[in-house]
Amino acid sequence: MRKFTSIAACLMAFSLILAACGGKSDNTSSPSASQSSEPASSAPASTDSAAPSDDISSKKITISIYYPTPDQVERRALEDDKIKRFNEKYPNVTIVKSDWQYNPNEIGIKMGANEAPTLFNTYATEGKFLAEKGWAADITDLFNNYEFKDQMNPILQNQFVIDGKVYGLAQQGYVTGTVVNKKMLTDKGVAVPSYDWTWDDMLNTAKAVADPGKGISGIAPMGKGNESGWNWTNFLFEAGGEIQNVADGKVTAAFNSDSGVKALQFYQKLKWEANSIPQDWALGWGDAVGAFAQGRTAMVIAGPDGPVDQALNQGGMKPEDVLVFPMPAAQAGGKHTGVLGGDFLVINPNASKDEQQMAFNYAVFDYFSDKGLESLEANIAARKKDNKYFVPPVIQYFKDDSEYGKKVRDVYAKHDNVYVYNADAINLLDGKPEAQYNTQDYYAAMTNIIQEVFSKKGSDPKKLLDDAAKTVQAKFYDTIKL
User: Fold this and answer.
1) Coil vs helix vs strand at 40
2) Cα(404)–Cα(399) distance, rounded to whole angstroms?
3) Compositional bias (Low complexity) at which positions (predicted)?
């Protein structure tokens, strides 16, 4: 385990690696983004935005907000506390709790029926999609008037800056990694690989720890839902591949490359050579992460904080037995590239200007504030009382080297129930944003391919990828006008 201060070095490295990514986003949801991250409200959060041009504190205003699901007890408690404190400052505002969780297949219906919340959650992949559809309010003026705009983490915030305009507010982020159950490896006499590991290391480790007769898998790659395509995309990136190319006013499928073939062949090895994946491999995010927390698989691929939180707080594992690895490099000396994702808040463009202002005020209410730090510390202490751990996001909404970042680290250092990521692992993370266009459709196409690879021995990776690329190209990419 490491001291949390090493995250600063990590994020400085991210800034160099990802500087070219500012302002880029795509139109899909990263499956893990919604399900694997700690809530923004459990991280320190806010002050208010700049005062509006007229005094809206005396106007009766109603806003609806994203509210955590019933199973997220701690997150609901934090949100309730935030609502109470917000109403102490703005007693004129009525806050309605919305139980709708963002879904790219439902957002159009919600907007058309005027049923979308005033403030709703979404993922790093959705910026361009929501902006182009007119389903995210242009909050550029609100953001530019925000006192702490220059302290927002550009690695995250820039993903919702589209053509120079701001369409969302960063909460927290991640780079996809592999979470490993060290105890399962040790109990089987399997050596824990180096953090600077390779595909071969992952394959050999998964094969050695798997016990199919007892229903134990070495690794559980997601095989159901679009998260299956999302999981596999990490290997496409590690092999040097791309989802699509954008040039000369055209979007062209690129995932059927030699890199794509190589990545798909690795999946074939996990299934047919190593026999290391679950016999019932049709697992969605919750299924795979649940299997990890229950000790039925030794490895799972996701944004790290979600599986770690479930393993510690639901599975009863010990922190020293839950290791966060970067994604493995395709070969020794290669990059440990993982999908860069995150959680964001978006304001409904159908809301009035006063409602948008109050929604913005609510979104940043705890950002950069002492109250936010107090809420964070109270959350950590409450978890300690309940014998639970606090698992921080890998990437925060604020710059890690900021004054506020130091205050957060100081809070973490005071408590022994804060999970600490290993410095060597974190420093190897190489975040890569997803594609700009129709990534959800690409994920769906890849999910079909992965299911065929897992169900039919001897499938032809090149043919499968070429057929999928042809379909995605004709059905989606050819309709895009740049």
Assistant:
1) helix
2) 8
3) 25-55
